[in-house]
Write a structure and sequence with these properties.
- The protein folds into 3 domains: 155 residues, Galactose-binding domain-like (Jelly Rolls, Sandwich); 100 residues, Immunoglobulins (Immunoglobulin-like, Sandwich), CATH 2.60.40; 313 residues, Glycosidases (TIM Barrel, Alpha-Beta Barrel).
- The chain has 9 helices and 30 strands.
- The strands form 7 sheets. It has an 8-stranded parallel beta barrel. A 6-stranded antiparallel β-sheet has the order 3-2-4-9-6-7, with no helix packed on it. It has a 4-stranded antiparallel β-sheet with strand order 1-12-5-8, with no helix packed on it.
- Helix 2 runs parallel beside helix 3 and helix 8 packs parallel to helix 9.
- The longest helix is centred in the middle third of the chain and has 22 residues.
- The chain is globular and about 70 Å long.
- The structure holds (2S,3S,4S,5R)-3,4,5-trihydroxy-6-oxo-oxane-2-carboxylic acid.
Length: 615
């Protein structure tokens, strides 16, 4: 797993050949592809761009809604001169489960649609020749997939997804696919932990820093680490697989004022470089203390969003252009943070957040662990009387789902642990925390992350409105309390909005009694709003009403100094499963799906540009 988690880079010793482009594509509703030899070529393919979700490129509903097995096949030339090294195909994501074949032979399997994996292909490849690469994917949801849902079969035999979440169940090869060449003896992992020495005159920007590092390799040769500043000037170096690097007067990574050092790692044999890898690393600390979140020892106030990787036609397919626009919109509005709701985003997003100084709450794809009316039953048709009400009471959840969850967290931390922008982990979104059965499960996964994240970042989960203070049974595991609350929309909507303010304040005071040392932040609140609908006086769905909802929330946030952040739902409107609760998608965006501001975006811009990133 560790090699798979290193972001691919070309260096003195490493090569990358992009496998993005047009692949052959075919649905396999009978799951007969393996038996019928589709791994060697598809009988009746159409072409499909990679990366992209397949759903929205089609014009018929059967294809868009397709649930089950489906295949991607391409031809791959493998350079003969790469024979002396390791050749691997890296899938940045394959949603949700994948089996990879090269020249008809299975080379890898992976479950989980939002994290990378590699297929090692040296043993099956034809060198300096063309090879057939086939991927069988499956996008069905169950209680053992993350995210969680069900798969139903309609009377005509077609399968359909019933997600326990509202975002559309986009799938396919949605991120980059690359062919990697690395030396056989190679760097497989790099771990860094930062300490800063902030003296009495510390201004938050420069401080003497100590970086504890650890390099994992697949051989025995010596390792060197060289640190370059942003001008390419060497500022420190160290020998050995683990040790400490001192950087005097280091330029720290800060919110919206990033600084990145280049850490170059080499395996050496005398003067010969056996392997070289580098990463752009920001030096910063993050901790929770006395009701505050501190970055470099300074108190931050988080302004930002819950987001989605979602855009027109591309679906969840990684699109650097749309992504860039999201960052520009976030900067324009005065944001300094976001949560990767509800799955780990493409690594390119995190590199952008590193460069732009965004505080990222990195969320696992653990959404939908709540069996109730809030699971968008009306929208998705996921109603089932057979299942118990409480998700965590189910035995298979405590065994199989827990194992999947643990493996996913290991992959997420391995991939994202070096990013300065990743300042906190969200291990679940809106789980059912009302039952005792959740307690041991939560302790298990929170302990795991405490153990594997050497930077010991704060950990939390997004709390659902039906598990308020006093009902929620798992908050003891969270380092800070993160609330999704919908006063002004799902409850206390419209004219009753003033009651929302009173009810929310009452709940907040209860939280503070229960957890007097933990800061609280809001990771969701908002109102569905159709861009262009205006009404005086306001009604729900109008742009005027969305502004009123945000004004109400601002009043709440400004009432308590232990509230450390506000992240409304959502940066943009996004696609959902069709249903009675949504008008062609979730419309709680501050921006439309084509990334244009609604009226409330101007309200928030005025508010946020007046609130400093550091208190
Ligand atoms: C939530 C979920 C989010 C939904 C949102 C909504 O609580 O976490 O995924 O999109 O509510 O708009 O209903």
């Amino acid at each position: 797993m560790s090699f798979a988690s290193l972001y691919p880079r070309v260096t003195a010793t490493r090569r990358i050949q992009s496998m993005n482009g047009s692949w052959d594509f075919q649905f396999d509703p009978e799951s007969c592809g393996v038996k019928e030899g589709w791994a060697n070529g598809l009988p009746n393919p159409t072409d499909m761009p990679v990366p992209a979700s397949f759903a929205d490129v089609f014009t018929d509903k059967y294809s868009r809604e397709y649930t089950g097995d489906f295949w991607y096949v391409t031809e791959l030339f493998v350079p003969g001169e790469w024979k002396d090294g390791s050749v691997d195909i890296r899938f940045d994501s394959a949603t949700h489960a994948a089996t990879v074949f090269v020249n008809g032979t299975e080379v890898a399997r992976h479950e989980g649609g939002f994290l990378p994996f590699v297929a090692h292909i040296n043993d099956v490849v034809k060198w300096n020749d063309y090879n057939t690469v086939a991927v069988r994917l499956n996008n069905e949801l169950s209680w053992q997939t993350l995210p969680v849902g069900e798969t139903h079969t309609l009377p005509d035999g077609t399968k359909t997804s019933a997600p326990y979440f509202d975002f559309y169940n986009y799938s396919g090869l949605q991120r980059n696919v690359s062919l990697l060449y690395t030396p056989n003896e190679r760097i497989e992992d790099l771990d860094v932990v930062h300490h800063i020495d902030a003296g009495p005159d510390f201004n938050g920007v420069f401080a003497d820093a100590r970086v504890d590092y650890r390099v994992a390799t697949s051989g025995d040769h010596d390792v060197e680490v060289v640190v370059l500043d942003e001008c390419g000037i060497e500022v420190a170096r160290a020998e050995g697989r683990e040790g400490t690097i001192d950087i005097a007067d280091a330029h720290l990574w800060n919110l919206r004022a990033a600084y990145l050092y280049r850490f170059v790692v080499r395996i050496k044999d005398g003067d010969d470089v056996i392997d070289e890898y580098f990463d752009e690393i920001g030096i910063r600390t993050v901790e929770v203390k006395d009701c505050r979140i501190l970055v470099n020892g300074r108190e931050v106030y988080l302004k930002g969003f819950g987001r989605h990787e979602d855009s027109d036609i591309h679906g969840r397919g990684f699109d650097p252009v749309v992504n860039k626009r999201d960052y520009e919109d976030m900067k324009w509005i005065g944001a300094n943070s976001f949560r990767t709701s509800h799955y780990p985003y493409a690594e390119e997003q995190l590199y952008e957040a590193d460069r732009d100084g965004f505080f990222v709450i990195d969320e696992a794809p653990t959404v939908g662990m709540f069996k109730s009316t809030m699971n968008f039953l009306g929208a998705s048709g996921a109603v089932s009387d057979e299942k118990p009400k409480t998700f965590f009471d189910e035995e298979s959840v405590q065994t199989e789902t827990l194992a999947v969850h643990r493996r996913t967290l290991e992959e997420m931390v391995a991939r994202d642990k070096r990013h300065a922008s990743v300042c906190a982990w969200s291990l679940l979104n809106e789980p059912d925390t009302t039952s005792e059965a959740a307690v041991a499960y939560f302790e298990n996964i929170f302990d795991l992350v405490a153990e594997i994240d050497t930077q010991r970042r704060p950990k939390t989960y997004a709390s659902i409105m039906m598990a308020p203070a006093g009902v929620d049974k798992t908050h003891h595991v969270a380092d800070f309390i993160m609330l999704n609350r919908y006063h002004g929309w799902y409850v206390n909507g419209g004219y009753a909005i003033s009651k929302g303010l009173i009810d929310m304040k009452a709940e907040l005071e209860r939280w503070h009694e229960l957890e007097p040392d933990k800061p609280v932040m809001f990771s969701e609140y908002g109102a569905d709003t159709m861009a262009g609908v205006h009404k005086l006086p306001s009604v729900m769905w109008s742009e005027e009403y969305q502004v009123e909802v945000f004004r109400m929330w601002s009043e709440i946030f400004d009432s308590y100094d232990w509230i450390v952040g506000e992240q409304p739902w959502n940066l943009n409107d996004f696609q959902t499963t069709e249903g009675i609760m949504r008008v062609n998608g979730n419309k709680k965006g501050l921006f439309t799906r084509d990334r244009q501001p609604k009226m409330a975006a101007f309200y928030l811009r005025d508010r946020w540009t007046a609130i400093p990133d550091y208190k």
